[in-house]
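Late entry, evening session. Most of the bench is empty. Finally got around to the prediction I had been postponing all week. Sequence below, unchanged from the version circulated by S.P.
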Amino acid sequence: MLRRSDSILLLGAVLAVGAVGVALVLQHAFGIEPCAWCTFQRLLFLLFGAFAVLGRLARGSRAALAASSALAVVAALGGLWAALHQQFVAAQSLSCAFTFADRALMNLRLDETLPWLFEATASCRDANAPLLGVPFALWSATLFVLLVLLAARAAWMARTAPEKPA
């Protein structure tokens, strides 16, 4: 059972990191610039991926797998909140400068340290353009919902699985 739950986490990590990869291709190859909320969601996708990989590395420990799965759920819920905030609040304003997302990235200095990944170069209204008719924020929210479900399933499976003998 532990093996199956850490495989679910690995799938989640691949999806989360893949989402950031797609965002970077769209930004750097196709000129679709991100806003502060977009780049904040990138951070949460990467946090989810890191927690999921930690869970995968904790293969023999039910407690460590459950803890990393729970942290991945929290990261994905934060990402879901950020995506929905972008869609329903930030995209309705002319600027998303000095919002929570912008301040968080500036305080962490991620926009300076890794500008190719975390620098916001568009307004929230402009950045939430549709892709295949669906705004970017809703694509992101949908993926965060899937990640919440995957990590919650892994956490539940880890809690109920018997501990592997040492």
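Two things to note before I forget:
The chain has one domain: 2-160.
The two ends are 16 Å apart (CA to CA).
Will write this up properly tomorrow.
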